[in-house]
Amino acid sequence: MLLTVAIPTYGRDSVLIDSIRFLLDLNEKADEILVIDQTTEHDLEIHKQLEQWDIEMKIRWVRIQFPSITRAMNIALRKARGKRVLFLDDDIIPDSNLVAVHRRYATSDENHIIAGRVLQPWHKGMADEDGAPFLFNSLDAREVTSFMGGNVSIPREPAIGLGGFDTNFVKVAYHFEAEFAYRWVKNGYRIFYEPQAIIHHLKTERGGTRTFGEHLTTISPDHSVGRYYYNLQTKPFHNAILRSALDLIRSITTRHHLRKPIWIPLTLFAEIRGFLWALLLWNSGNGRIRGEKINLLVVASHPIQYTTPIYKELTESSDYIVKVLYLTIPDKISQSLGFGKEFQWDIPLLEGHEYTCARSECGKGLAFGFLGVRLKRPFSDLRRVTKSFKPDVVLYTGWHFFGMVQLFLALVTSNIPIILRMDSNGMKHRSTLNREIYKKLLSFVKVGLVVGSENQDFCLSLGMSQRQIVLCPHVVDNQFFSERANKARCSFAEIRNRWSIPKDSFCFLFAGKLQEKKRPLDLLQALNNICRKHGDNIYLLMIGTGKLEQECMDYALTNNLPVTFGGFLNQTQMPEAYSISDCIVLPSGDDETWGLVINEAMSCALPAIVSDKVGCGKDLVHDKQTGYIYRSGDISQLSLLMDYMVRNQESSKQMGQNAKRLIEERYSLDQVIDGIHKAVSQIHG
Q: Which residue, 331, 476, 494, 633, is most buried by CB atoms nearer than 10 A?
């Protein structure tokens, strides 16, 4: 394929349709037409027409949610199948020979940019006079050092090799073409103006850069930031500062400002804001692409046994180059705080993905709450990573430590799109200030990956729109737990005997830290309410350690309860506990944002009883289908549900099978990777 026509478009409806129709009606057509559509919502008829052309394969309609001319053009470079990409404005009438002229250069092995002629409405079809400043409306072919992005064909592979267009040219993106041309010529390539490749630019008032207002009458930095960023990218720093100072002076000495001097301080304010913004962008590293694949940076507080499989799957994908930035990698002692004994996870947490660690971590550690993980130099830590690995997009995993907030704020200044995947929800009481902070942080997020219903409701309540939200459920490695549990069931009697569990009893399971928020004493009290009714037919296995361990053991001993305290079990040992249990109970109070132990148990065919404070309840625990939900702290209701499970063991087993099927079909690694794919596609097509 020789020539791809690429049309980045934003905020255009009927004029876009007309432009495409003109191209489709040409005698010599492009090999393909890529429409990189950044418009949030089209008129219904426009949408139907674009969709129909896409179905008929007359165009490839690529939709992205968030407007950026440079990012849209990079998407076109990556997705184009042609050897040469002809970029056209979305409000044009093409000359009958436009495609033919550009295609002629595509047959050549020479890697030249071909800049076409652009007839503006005020030209009235006439060329500029001889000797007039060159503004891409001359009849004379020539070699040039720049081009206009609305009619230019670029060799695809060399353009990608140079990093494409710099996405740090934001908003109006003034001078993004000049910066690309600067790099192109600097690397030994050439640019030629071809007057026979003509478009008639309609310069439609609505849409495109007109969305950002007029540069002479705005206090926004949207127009000026590109000019200052161009200076910083193409000149030595001191020269760039001098040139920027001259540009600032020129910006307030126009005819407009002489006639209306009231605009001088307002424009000065906008220009200074634009310059400071440009400095931040420049300091964060350039916004060029790195080849065909998407560079995906994941930011996480520390390695977690549940997320390592996700990072491994992403790394093995053909779509991404993945790097994980951890704020801290805990040692054996800090990893063990809160568990009651020293341990390290017995599965590899750092294998299967490339990672690095922040160098300025300064908190006391994971077990010391929000302030336990902090950074001394968050901007420096981010800069160190992005300088060598410039991300196209960042997958951020929440704000559960202050260091994660610090790094997020540093990231906001870098113009790298952020995808957020966290599990916070509205079940926990939050102050007005806390909610306002969440709302402000969420305003910088492009796409929210929600792990479940409660998480989604929370994000919507804080101002995220439904179109920003993509389902990306909380999962565990189902195969890991299911296969090991099935194998352990071959030793069912032996394992039960090891924990002193009668072979024929109905065994409830608690698995988690023995701490206040998990409310383990509620479960023991419920067991006490019903155990005399069932005698040897009921048992409880409690797996975990923590501050309440001794109190729980004392209660069980005082009331002569049929309980075994199994202590801490590592990941590879947990399937044994699931294999000999009949139902898992999670009686947590506040702040159980999800409860991944329920995923683990359900993957091993266990039904669940959970309190209404457990975040996964709405999604995983379906009444009479996969288990039951009760009011947190209502021990009588919990007792009744446990009693029902013991008396209806066939029903309980069926609920366990339903739970296993639900987990396998809707809560697997495949669903997570698919959600991340969809989120990235909203940004990068």
A: 476
Percent of the chain whose predicted confidence (pLDDT) is above 70: 97
Write down the pLDDT at residue 658.
Answer: 98
| Interval 635-650 mean pLDDT | 96
C-alpha 10/C-alpha 211 separation (Å) is 9
User: Which secondary structure element, helix H or strand E, spans residue 257, and what is its range?
Assistant: helix 255-259
Report residue 220's pLDDT band, with 50, 70 and 90 as the boundaries. Answer: confident
| pLDDT for res 333 | 62
pLDDT at 210 over 50: no
* Cα–Cα dist 445/461, whole Å: 15
Residue 392, CB-side half-sphere exposure with 13 Å CA sphere: 28
Distance CA 404, CA 373 (A): 8
Terminal CA-to-CA distance of the chain, rounded, Å?
21
Task: Please tell me the distance from the alpha carbon of residue 657 to that of residue 627, in angstroms, as a whole number.
Answer: 11
Nearest alpha carbon to residue 289 among 501, 77, 48:
77
Do residues 478 and 485 touch, judged by C-beta distance below 8 A?
Answer: no
Distance from C-alpha of 459 to C-alpha of 408, rounded to nearest angstrom = 17
Cα(241)–Cα(166) distance, rounded to whole angstroms? 20
Rg of the chain over all Cα atoms, to the nearest angstrom: 31
**Distance separating alpha carbons of residues 508 and 601, to the nearest angstrom:** 11
Residues 6 or more apart whose Cβ sits within 8 Å of residue 41: 47
Q: What is the largest CA-CA distance in the chain?
A: 104
Q: For Cα atoms 491, 492, 494, give the angle at the middle one, nearest 5 degrees.
A: 65
Cα 29 to its chain centre, rounded Å, is 37
In whole angstroms, give the CA distance from residue 278 to residue 242: 14
pLDDT digits (tens, 9 = 90+) for 369-426: 889 999 999 999 999 998 888 899 999 999 999 999 999 999 998 889 999 999 999 9
Map residue 203 onto helix, strand or coil: coil
- pLDDT value at position 387? 84
